[in-house]
Amino acid sequence: MSKKLELNGLWESSRMMLPEHKARILSDERETLRKEKPVLDEQKQEEIECTLALSLRSHVRVTVVLFDPFKDVEVSGFVTSIHTHSREFKLQWAEEWKWIDVDNIVEAYIV
To answer: Distance between CA 18 and CA 36 in Å, rounded?
Structure first.
Protein backbone atom coordinates (compact mmCIF):
# COMPACT_ATOMS: atom_id res chain seq x y z
CA MET A 1 0.00 0.00 0.00
CA SER A 2 2.88 2.37 0.66
CA LYS A 3 4.00 1.92 -2.93
CA LYS A 4 0.59 3.06 -4.15
CA LEU A 5 0.78 6.08 -1.85
CA GLU A 6 4.18 7.02 -3.23
CA LEU A 7 3.10 6.71 -6.86
CA ASN A 8 -0.25 8.44 -6.79
CA GLY A 9 0.26 10.90 -3.97
CA LEU A 10 -1.87 11.67 -0.96
CA TRP A 11 -5.09 12.65 -2.77
CA GLU A 12 -5.34 9.55 -4.95
CA SER A 13 -4.36 6.96 -2.37
CA SER A 14 -6.81 4.38 -1.16
CA ARG A 15 -6.58 5.67 2.42
CA MET A 16 -9.42 7.67 3.94
CA MET A 17 -9.00 11.37 4.71
CA LEU A 18 -11.29 13.41 6.92
CA PRO A 19 -12.76 16.54 5.31
CA GLU A 20 -11.31 18.64 8.14
CA HIS A 21 -7.83 17.37 7.35
CA LYS A 22 -8.25 18.08 3.64
CA ALA A 23 -9.48 21.63 4.41
CA ARG A 24 -6.51 22.21 6.70
CA ILE A 25 -4.04 21.00 4.07
CA LEU A 26 -5.60 23.26 1.43
CA SER A 27 -5.56 26.28 3.75
CA ASP A 28 -1.90 25.63 4.57
CA GLU A 29 -1.10 25.51 0.86
CA ARG A 30 -2.89 28.84 0.31
CA GLU A 31 -0.90 30.40 3.14
CA THR A 32 2.38 29.39 1.52
CA LEU A 33 1.24 30.82 -1.82
CA ARG A 34 0.46 34.21 -0.28
CA LYS A 35 2.50 37.04 -1.77
CA GLU A 36 3.60 40.38 -0.42
CA LYS A 37 2.11 43.68 -1.58
CA PRO A 38 4.57 45.45 -3.89
CA VAL A 39 5.84 48.85 -2.84
CA LEU A 40 5.22 51.36 -5.62
CA ASP A 41 7.59 54.26 -6.11
CA GLU A 42 6.33 57.85 -6.41
CA GLN A 43 6.51 57.85 -10.20
CA LYS A 44 4.32 54.76 -10.50
CA GLN A 45 1.80 56.17 -8.00
CA GLU A 46 1.64 59.43 -9.94
CA GLU A 47 1.14 57.52 -13.20
CA ILE A 48 -1.79 55.60 -11.67
CA GLU A 49 -3.36 58.81 -10.32
CA CYS A 50 -3.00 60.54 -13.71
CA THR A 51 -4.63 57.58 -15.46
CA LEU A 52 -7.58 57.74 -13.07
CA ALA A 53 -7.91 61.52 -13.54
CA LEU A 54 -7.81 61.08 -17.33
CA SER A 55 -10.61 58.52 -17.11
CA LEU A 56 -12.69 60.94 -15.04
CA ARG A 57 -12.09 63.96 -17.33
CA SER A 58 -12.34 62.22 -20.72
CA HIS A 59 -14.86 59.54 -19.71
CA VAL A 60 -12.73 56.69 -21.07
CA ARG A 61 -12.70 53.13 -19.78
CA VAL A 62 -9.86 52.30 -17.41
CA THR A 63 -8.66 48.92 -16.18
CA VAL A 64 -7.16 48.72 -12.70
CA VAL A 65 -5.25 45.77 -11.27
CA LEU A 66 -6.00 45.42 -7.56
CA PHE A 67 -3.63 43.69 -5.17
CA ASP A 68 -4.76 40.39 -3.69
CA PRO A 69 -2.52 38.16 -1.57
CA PHE A 70 -3.19 35.15 -3.81
CA LYS A 71 -4.07 36.46 -7.29
CA ASP A 72 -4.36 40.04 -8.54
CA VAL A 73 -7.85 41.13 -9.62
CA GLU A 74 -8.57 43.19 -12.74
CA VAL A 75 -11.57 45.53 -12.75
CA SER A 76 -12.58 47.65 -15.72
CA GLY A 77 -14.98 50.58 -15.86
CA PHE A 78 -15.35 54.36 -15.83
CA VAL A 79 -14.16 56.63 -13.03
CA THR A 80 -17.13 58.75 -11.98
CA SER A 81 -15.83 60.35 -8.78
CA ILE A 82 -12.51 60.85 -6.99
CA HIS A 83 -12.08 61.66 -3.29
CA THR A 84 -8.52 62.91 -2.86
CA HIS A 85 -8.78 63.32 0.92
CA SER A 86 -9.62 59.64 1.46
CA ARG A 87 -7.61 58.43 -1.58
CA GLU A 88 -10.47 56.49 -3.11
CA PHE A 89 -12.44 56.64 -6.35
CA LYS A 90 -15.75 55.37 -7.65
CA LEU A 91 -15.49 52.90 -10.55
CA GLN A 92 -18.69 52.21 -12.47
CA TRP A 93 -19.43 49.48 -15.00
CA ALA A 94 -22.84 48.59 -16.47
CA GLU A 95 -25.31 49.28 -13.64
CA GLU A 96 -22.85 48.51 -10.83
CA TRP A 97 -20.22 50.62 -9.05
CA LYS A 98 -17.62 50.23 -6.35
CA TRP A 99 -15.46 52.51 -4.23
CA ILE A 100 -11.81 51.48 -4.58
CA ASP A 101 -8.87 52.57 -2.45
CA VAL A 102 -6.04 53.99 -4.58
CA ASP A 103 -3.47 52.34 -2.31
CA ASN A 104 -4.76 48.87 -3.35
CA ILE A 105 -3.94 49.48 -7.03
CA VAL A 106 -0.89 47.80 -8.54
CA GLU A 107 -1.44 48.92 -12.15
CA ALA A 108 -3.88 51.16 -14.05
CA TYR A 109 -4.20 51.63 -17.79
CA ILE A 110 -6.62 53.02 -20.35
CA VAL A 111 -8.37 50.39 -22.45
So the answer is: 32
